[in-house]
Design goal:
Layout: H1 7-33, E1 44-45, E2 57-58, E3 64-65, E4 74-80, H2 87-101, E5 109-115, H3 123-131, E6 138-140, H4 144-153, E7 158-161, E8 170-173, E9 177-180, E10 186-190, H5 196-208
Parallel strand pairs: 4-5, 5-6
Antiparallel strand pairs: 1-10, 2-3, 4-9, 7-8, 9-10
Length: 209
């Protein structure tokens, strides 16, 4: 993020990075133990992981959503916030490019954006934000209590960073994405900055399975 990094924040980030690095490795081992199919993926295979298996959160229309709502599609889920200056808009733009790269299979991709800033990311804000990229992308808006629970379940890091005024704060947060197959099973951990072509290739592999 484009904010100063203090020694305390560095220690916090290092702890989170270590945990995030371990999570895909453990998921990969779980996938092998689970006897999952041996596909070749560009992203980190976490098939069989015991976390991030589902959610139950309201979208910008107030409808409660779970993975079951998107059965038959590959779901790419990302945590972020509307006022993010770099990581979030970059990721969302890349996902619009991934959808285009899929061609006729583009309608079999569902991008889900979970805000880590429910204080400012109201339904109106998130509708406009999704619409700026692709109107089929869905935003989920947890309550502060739900955010704590879902972040823990998904092993996601987020932290409020105070600004000059009470409303000018920013949010540090995890930048990777989770990818689910058409049956709603967690399959891949997509690192931030992964090439569009690689993400599209993994989606096609899951759709063909």
């Amino acid at each position: 993020m484009s904010v100063p990094v203090t020694s305390e924040r560095k220690r916090t980030l290092f702890k989170w990075m270590a945990a995030a690095a371990a999570a895909p490795m453990l998921g990969t081992l779980a996938g092998c133990m689970d006897g999952g199919d041996k596909k070749s993926f560009k992203a980190v295979d976490i098939t069989g992981a015991e976390y991030a298996r589902d959610f139950s959160l309201k979208d910008a229309d107030g409808k409660t959503r779970t993975l079951a709502d998107f059965k038959g599609k590959v779901v790419v889920l990302f945590f972020g916030y509307a006022q993010c200056p770099d990581v979030c808009p970059t990721t969302m733009t890349e996902m619009t490019e991934v959808k285009k790269a899929l061609g006729a299979d583009g309608d079999k991709l569902q991008v889900v954006f979970v805000t880590v800033d429910p204080e400012r990311d109201t339904a109106e804000v998130m509708k406009a934000y999704m619409g700026a990229f692709d109107p089929t992308f869905i935003a989920l808006i947890p309550t502060p209590q739900e955010l704590v629970a879902v972040a823990k379940d998904f092993k996601v890091y987020y932290k409020k960073v105070d600004g000059k005024t009470p409303t000018s704060y920013s949010m540090d947060h995890s930048a990777a994405q989770y990818m689910y197959d058409p049956q709603g099973r967690l399959r891949l951990y997509v690192r931030y900055g992964s090439p569009v072509a690689d993400i599209a290739a993994d989606i096609k592999t899951l759709l063909a399975a």
